[in-house]
Structures are given as structure tokens and as C-alpha cells.
Design goal:
Length: about 220
């Protein structure tokens, strides 16, 4: 059985007691033609295939503690909060039996972060020596407006960071750890600024070269 705890739709003031997911998270129109990719690149999407990353799922030990990180510190918007109690369809999807827990959806711009807190079956923690080089999904990357400010906010709230933000040119980034030691990348996309700087440099160099040629 699926039970909604009660949250508001993002697009209205209507309280939702029980409703299909489409009423809580309105479907978005599929993009067509050229789509801008991260870091300023473009790709063309055909008629079929993957259109976008819908959400990232994270299994957590304590939902309230994790909400304190993802919602209260990082600022993601809570759009759904639901109890799950032995739903046969969901059991089939996740490949487990008698699944019990709480699932929360948080909006991160045009994408979603899904937090799962299982009461049954109980999950295993990440190994103490877990590294980004280990196999599997190693981190989720969240784009932020100001990575320095967000890094300071995360560390100030008592969470661990692997380093201060590092400037890599087209983006500035750092890894931080969530409540269950999961890795979250905070990324400030600077591709437009970097591309503008490159265009500006090329334009200046071209004009200077033309001037030198004219003067010679």
C-alpha cells in the first residue's frame, strides 16, 4: 500500500492527502531538437531514446536527518513524502519482498533527488573505506550558484568536505559527505563565462593581428 504523508503540489496550494505521482510532480514536456548539455555543449536528441535524468535515488538511515541536509542545508524543495507498506508492484520493481519504508522526493531545479528510508529490508551501510574509485554509482552532482558559499554552509552545519572548492576552468567544484557518508558533488557551472572569455580572447587576438598586419 502507498500512503502519502501529505505535502503540497509545487504548482498549487491544494493539500494532497492521496494522489498519483503525476498530480504531485507534474510531467514535463519532453525536449526536442537541440538540447544544451552541461559545460556549454549541445547534443541532438532523436525520436527515441533517453531524454533526461529523471531522478537520483539515495538510500538513507534516518529520513529526518537526511532532510536536514538535503532540504535545510542544500535548499532542495520537498515535493512528495510517502509511506510504502508492502506494495506488490514496487516489490517487483526493486526486486525485494515486503518492502516497507518512507520515500521523499526533493526538487533540484529540473531534476529530482529521491530519498529512501527502508524499514524492511534493512540496508547495509557504506564500508568505512569506501572511495570514489569503487564500482557503482559513486556520487550525485548538484549544480549550485555559488560553490564557495554552499561549501561554507555545508561545513558550518557540521558535515564533512573532502576539500575546499577547486577551480577546474569550466566549473568549480568540491565533494562533500551527506549524513550516511554518501558523496555529493557541489558544482558551479562556469562554462558560459569560460566560453565568453575564450571568444573575447580570440576576438582581441584576431583584431590585434589584423592591426599589426595593416601597420606593417
Amino acid at each position: 500500500m502507498l500512503r502519502l504523508r501529505l505535502r503540497r503540489c509545487r504548482s498549487s496550494d491544494l493539500d494532497v492527502a492521496c494522489s498519483p505521482l503525476s498530480a504531485i510532480i507534474p510531467p514535463r514536456a519532453a525536449p526536442s531538437g537541440e538540447m544544451k548539455r552541461p559545460f556549454g555543449y549541445y547534443t541532438h536528441r532523436g525520436a527515441m531514446g533517453v531524454t533526461r535524468v529523471n531522478h537520483t535515488g539515495i538510500s538513507v538511515t534516518d529520513m529526518d536527518r537526511s532532510l536536514g541536509f538535503y532540504r535545510d542545508v542544500l535548499g532542495l524543495e520537498l515535493v512528495m513524502d510517502m509511506d510504502v507498506d508492502r506494495h506488490p508492484g514496487l516489490d517487483s520493481v526493486v526486486g525485494m519482498t515486503d518492502t516497507i519504508g518512507r520515500v521523499v522526493m526533493l526538487a533540484a531545479g529540473d531534476s529530482l533527488v529521491e530519498l529512501w528510508c527502508y524499514a524492511n529490508p534493512m540496508g547495509r551501510p557504506l564500508p568505512a573505506d569506501y572511495r570514489p574509485a569503487d564500482k557503482g554509482v559513486t556520487h550525485v552532482a548538484l549544480e549550485v550558484d555559488d560553490v564557495d558559499a554552499m561549501h561554507a554552509r555545508v561545513v558550518g552545519a557540521g558535515f564533512r568536505a573532502k576539500s575546499a572548492p577547486v577551480d577546474l576552468g569550466i566549473h568549480k567544484t568540491c565533494y562533500v559527505h551527506g549524513p550516511d557518508d554518501e558523496i555529493v558533488e557541489l558544482l558551479e557551472d562556469r562554462s558560459d563565462r569560460e566560453m565568453l572569455a575564450r571568444v573575447t580572447r580570440r576576438t582581441i587576438e584576431r583584431r590585434l593581428a589584423a592591426k599589426d598586419k595593416k601597420d606593417s
